[in-house]
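Entry 14. Structure prediction run on the chain below.
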Amino acid sequence: MPTLWPIPTFGILWIIWKVLLHRRDRRVIQQHQCAPIPSYPHKDPFLGYDLHRLLEKSKQTNSLLPTIETLYRTYGNGRTFKALTWGIPTLYTTDPKNIQAVLATHFDRFGVEPIRKAFNDPWIGAGIVTSDGPLWKSSRAILKPLFAKSQFADFNKLEIHVSNLICTLEVGRGMVDLQPHFSHLYVNLAMEFLFGLPAEELLPQVQMTVDDFLNEMQVALQGVQRRVALGPMLKIAAKDRPWQRACQKIHRVFDYCIDKALIDNANPPCVPDAIPSEAAQYSFSLVQELVKETHDRKYIRDQLLSVFLPIHNASPIAISDLFFQLARHPEVWKGLRKESLDIGNQPLTFEVLKSMKFLNCVIRESLRLLAPLDRVLRLALRDTVLPRGGGPTGEQAIYIEQGTLIDIRTNVLHRDTSFWGPDAAAFRPDRWLQSDLRPKWEFLPFGGGARNCPASNFVLTQYAFIITKFVRRFAAVENQDATYEFVDEYNFSKRSRNGVKVRLVPGSQFD
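Output returned:
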């Protein structure tokens, strides 16, 4: 008869290990004077499905923001409470001290790979947005300098694409939905940044139209959204065939461009020595730079998709939301137009756009209220202590165990009346002219810490350029939407469900 002594021995060792861990945790809690975290009273104490259902329902009824604000007020201490997300312990916090600790001070103790990789793989795989540790560091080290290198090239191309868009809009003088127009603008900009050709020239080479590609991207994003909603049930869910087909079609486009770049890199054209033209000096494509670093096709594709996604998805939503606000605040458009006309015929350089104070205030205010990405997620990779959130006032430190999900809702953070004032929910760009308004961890349109968007400054400059070109050409932008308020639609990012329906009123630059 076989011996069974290893089984009880293993059980005893496991109990001893748990006791030692508990004692260690108690010492840490006492050392940092950690206090209990307020909790959401789940009806389902195992998975927390009741809260998941409440939040999903509020998305459908355009009440997600007030629902979350109510949760903070009712069950938390104003800024922090804990709950369950598909059985995973979750800390909801909008406390700037905690946000700083998670995104910067204790950056190495929190990660994204356990959250993002399963939901995005095999679409993006091991890209910069889905990885942690050495892989993320190496990707960041390669990509960050390339954004700086590309700035002048992309700025020249932006001039062409925005002028073409304005010409298109001038043809029709009635109501227009700007949202799809900005999607087309940015898919062209993204393709030209990545591959050196705009989408309208590149995609026919793989027998695809721009609209076909945008439709496939929508299917892919919707698939990721469904996978996130499934949580741990994803492992047993049926295969999402439409999502897989969309991913394959998008991969086909990227693989075609990568193969072409690899061939071009292996067989550079033989040209006589000469001083390159200005256009040649500014010629840039991200894929050309990446193939100089590696020939790993999947690695290159993962990085390209990681860069393409925010350019294609977040940027057109952000600029669309800006026009959504401007159509409802005609006095702001007049202020922008006056500031733009005051600078005369000066070329729109980085320095000129940066000097336009009111313009930059308008951009920041729109991003504060309608940031496309309204939450930041991290997973605790080890046990740690956060500075605040415990006790009835939330001023005491809290102990966070490994495996805890950190859910930072920036849409709540950006409306905190204790920092932004009693009119925090109002669109008021001149608040940014106040000398005492200096947000740090209270304002996160591009994330924060080491994982913040490496191209944020250039993205803001793009927004400034687009708006200035529009206010120089159009005397006014008038709202044509019967629904005045912003109605959320979630598809990976948040955008206006009703689009951005406006009428652009022509006007001379020198009115």
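Confidence is low (pLDDT under 50) at residues 274-282.
Filed with the rest of this week's runs.
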